[in-house]
Amino acid sequence: MILSVDQIAKQNLEHESIHHDNFGFLKEKLINEGIDVSKIMEQLTTFQIAIPSWALGTGGTRFGRFSIGGEPTTLLQKIEDIGLLHALTQNSGAVSLHIPWDKVDNEREIKKKAKSLGIAFDAMNSNTFQDQKGQTYSYKFGSLCNVDPAIRQQAVNHNLEVIELGKKLGSKSLTVWLADGSNFPGQNNFQRVLKNTLESLKQIYKALPEDWKLFIEYKPYEPNFYSMVIPDWGTSYMLASHLGPKAFTLVDLGHHLPNTNIEQIVATLLLQGKLGGFHFNDSKYGDDDLSVGSIKPYALFLIFNELVYGMQENEKNPYPAWMIDASHNTKDPLEDLIQSIEAIKNAYAKALLIDQQELRKAQASHDVVYAQEILKKAYETDVRPILAEVRRLQNGALNPLAVYRKLNVRLRLIEERGKDTVASGL
Ligand SMILES: [Mn+2]
User: Fold this and answer.
1) Tens digit of pLDDT for each residue in 383-397?
2) What is the reported pTM?
3) 286-335 residue pLDDT tens
4) Helix (H, G, I), strand (E, B), or coil: what is residue 2?
5) From ligand 1's centre to the CA of 252, what distance in Å?
6) Residues 139, 150: contact at Cβ < 8 Å?
7) Cβ–Cβ under 8 Å, residues 298 and 379
8) Cα 347 to ligand 1 centre (Å)
9) Could you tell me which of 106, 117, 186, 418 has the fewest CB atoms within 10 Å of its CB?
10) How far away, in angstroms, is 52 Cα from ligand 1 center?
11) CA of residue 289 to ligand 1 center, whole Å
12) Is 95 helix (H, G, I), strand (E, B) or coil?
């Protein structure tokens, strides 16, 4: 299924006059406050968020999985679904593949389909946290960290294959997330597994093309519950620093213990030029993979405040790679992704409204109250008319969720693909 520009434009007619009033009012108000609205709109236009191929089916838990119907079963169908999202939102023009969940046996066709829908290939994701059919060695006791060199080599080789595949597709980065760790004290020698991991990563790093980046993700617990080999940003940063200039830390919002000050981590990594990428989601307790902004929208805004500052000030930090990393059991995955994209842009747009100059002044004069008020003022501005206008100008939907529902997209996908299809992945 493909949504045409005309179909979306026709749906926009219904919302157009209210939108026109809302946007006009907000634009005038912001201009009166000295804000460069067109610059903000430019920044929002170029902002593209990658969609992981595994977010297009209903996510499973270890207790059960409830298919929504019409789920994409092939990579071509997954790219088509991202095409639907991109047509509506104009901000999801990239896909992040997961190997071996995504079967790429027809590269040419896949590249052609992606190109026709305006979709680029973002980071490749390797998987050494599961055993695959026919695999020689098991990752039950770790992959890149394993005490057995043959198991480590198998895991390294898998990553090298993923790089090769990514080269063919036009990807420029590899994300490594390791489930490696231990469940009980004494199971692992902490120093040895960390050293093994670094040595394995060095082999992977050596195979990276010149213009590629390696992203190292961290996570404090789960699936291992006593220790993880890369539990925090400090360990990831240390590994990335040892590897060299093409290696970076990747921050996944859900991979922190409750109440961690993620915005401070973001600031530190930016200062060091080592923030490579971002995985968006939200959580109440742990790695809950809830929709972005559904639980802690203010924290998301504060994170974007640091990102906006860092993207301006820290020239040696490359432009970060943005991706949504969430998986749901209860919502239509496409509706959920529309909500997530909107929440991310909402936080970004609000952060762009912050009066940085005034904030510096407040900080210099130790005016704590005023500093907080500056942030609050930006946060409490309803920026949705700006987001809608940016979409309209790019032929997207004024209200993506309303259009998705009005055109019965899910129903049409079920008619096309069947009720019982299950997307590959978790
Ligand atoms: Mn992640």
Assistant:
1) 999 999 999 999 999
2) 0.96
3) 999 999 999 999 999 999 999 999 999 999 999 999 999 998 789 999 99
4) coil
5) 5
6) no
7) yes
8) 19
9) 186
10) 10
11) 9
12) strand
